[in-house]
Amino acid sequence: MKSNIKLMQGNEACVEGALAAGMKFYAGYPITPSTEIAEISSLRLPKIGGKFIQMEDEIAGMAATIGASLAGLKSMTATSGPGFSLKQENIGFAAITEIPCVIVNVQRAGPSTGLPTSPSQGDVMQAKWGTHGDHPVIALTPSSVRETFDLTVKAFNYAEKYRTPVILLLDEVIGHLREKIEIPEKENIEIIDRVKPSCDPNDYKPYGLEENDIVPKMASFGDGYRYHVTGLVHDETGFPSNDSVIAENLVNRIVNKVEDNVDDLANFEEYMLDDAEVAIIAYGSTARSAKSAVQMARENGLKVGLFRPMTIWPFLSKQIENLTKKVNKILVVEMNLGQYLIEVERIADKNSTVYSYNRINGKLISPDEILNKIKEDIYA
Q: What residue segments make up the domains of the chain, in order of their start?
């Protein structure tokens, strides 16, 4: 048997993907159902010269992750619902200071302590708007163990390429699911590292753009490039400014470096959509049930297909708009009260009728339930 074929848990695959991407630092605080990510990181990182630290709380875990990235290490933290809430202020700090890092949120049912061991997809909008102010957001969501590995690598690559925090939205099912996966060979994994400055340290502007750049080059603390980091609006030197023009230009730039590059960030799957009359939109573990429902619908003579976004943010407006040109009925299935639905309706309502199937009680949505919804409400 090949040594790179493993029976692996989703949370374990997340760590393996992070290590493959070059993670050298992890800071966090244990919380169900993400704890295995911290546990495995604590075992693996010291063996490769990396650092693991359990902080006193989630806020400190996010702060340490930011600090390690400033010092030049690819850094990650992981949490679940209540911890994700606590990290939000520091996520905003990472966004405005353009510090690359990865935040994994293994979603569980809420609000508050909620159902700690039950799955949910209730943090979709929090991933977009959890911290205050307009800010860049990249959020990815896998539907399998292998995809967890792959999207964790992508999360680090996007963080480094765009100098921004990236959120990986798992859910309890994907985090604890075990599947056989084949880990790709190192030479077949694309790795992106932040671009460092080559100028004289005296000429370095930590937030200045050179010709054709959309992201400033990033020096590591300790490399001889001294610069100031602040959560205040700042100019090219990194020092605070109250200038309204500088403020507008800064916020527009950090948002647009993501929103203007949606094509580069777009990860999605289209399944049996060529002749579909109805399209299901689903993501994460719910998409597994949706794909089975599509197969069952086809067996019943119903022309149903699946659109599965792996990039949740930025929103895949172009792909959803193209979908509305293929089908006139769309069913959005998710384990919340319609968080992704709102965005789909914003685009699709012009051309398609949008239906929804939602659940918030911690139980999975089954393929049978999705099929019944299609038969009773859409094809009725």
A: 1-265, 267-378
The neighbour count for residue 198, using CB atoms within 10 Å, is 7
The 3 state secondary structure assigned to 51-110 is EEEECCCHHHHHHHHHHHHHCCCEEEEEECHHHHHHHHHHHHHHHHHCCCEEEEEEEEEC
Give CATH for domain 1-265: 3.40.50.970
* Token pair for 296: 């069952």
Torsion of CA 315, 320, 321, 325, to 10 degrees: 180
**Shortest CA distance to 353 belongs to which of 361, 362, 344?**
344
What is the tens place of the pLDDT at every residue in 346-375? Answer: 998 778 999 999 999 999 999 999 999 999
CA atoms lying within 13 Å on the CB side of residue 341: 19
Cβ-based neighbours of 218, under 8 Å, separated by 6 or more: 98, 100, 163, 194, 195, 196, 197, 206
Q: Yes or no: say if 141 and 71 are a contact pair by the CB < 8 Å rule.
A: no
**Which fold does the domain 267-378 belong to in CATH?**
Rossmann fold (3.40.50)
Supply the pTM of this predicted model: 0.97
Report the sign of the C-alpha dihedral through residues 158, 161, 162, 163, in that order: positive
Residue carrying structure tokens 């980091």: 229
Domains 1-265 and 267-378 share a fold: yes
pLDDT per residue as tens digits for the range 115-144: 999 999 999 999 999 999 999 999 999 999
